[in-house]
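job 3f2a | input accepted
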Amino acid sequence: MIELSIANGIAEIVLNAPEKLNSLNEDALLELGKAYDDAADAASRGEVRALLLRGEGRAFCAGRDIAGVTPETDDAQAYLGGLVEPLLKKMAAFPAPTFAAAHGACLGVGLGLLLATDVVYVAENAKFGSPFAKLGATLDSGGHWYFTERLGMHRTLDLIYTADLISGTEAVAQGLFSRAMPDDALLAMTRSIVERVASGATQAFVASKELVAHIRDQRLGLWESMAEENTEQARLCKTDDYAEGFRAFQEKRAPAFKG
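job 3f2a | predicted structure (259 res):
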């Protein structure tokens, strides 16, 4: 159900099980991890400079595939701690800018895939929230941190207690994701942006990606963050893309970055 294609510096990973809204069982999670490993290997060879994650059919990802799960014997720790968490960490550490185009249901593990992605564009009518109140379970895949960080405590618990879902338009307005787009234009618009980023200064983008992660995870203050910026800028000034960017500016032409 997981498909990977690489072309023109872009890795595109597709969740392709539309008959079950791209919900993920254990095997699918392993497949997805393998796709990210393969794409990262290609990135190390300079063949991938951006990644796009998307889902086929009516939904991005409806979460865990629980069709065959027996509650009495379910090992949620093995699924979440043993499979989902390592996958999300791998996704977050991908060595190039990552994007997701999210439509339809984006719940549970599906939400987790989005929070592990650098930039998320959503369909205006996509659906986000915590449906677990109806299952006697709780929000997972980092959802508590993500919602609390972006929405605050009261709105987070409101969504959890009520199991109400919000639209893509609402999610962007409330600060959850980057941009909302019409459903029928989402993929084309996202691909256009990813293509532009894939032709950019990849090392500089990765430096910013890592710095933003440090600010988030280590709660860096202004001056600590500035010190990291200075260090990264000093490193980047020795790269070919840095030299090309300055030459292009001085020669009044578009830069031709090689990543």
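job 3f2a | The chain has a mean pLDDT of 96.
job 3f2a | closed
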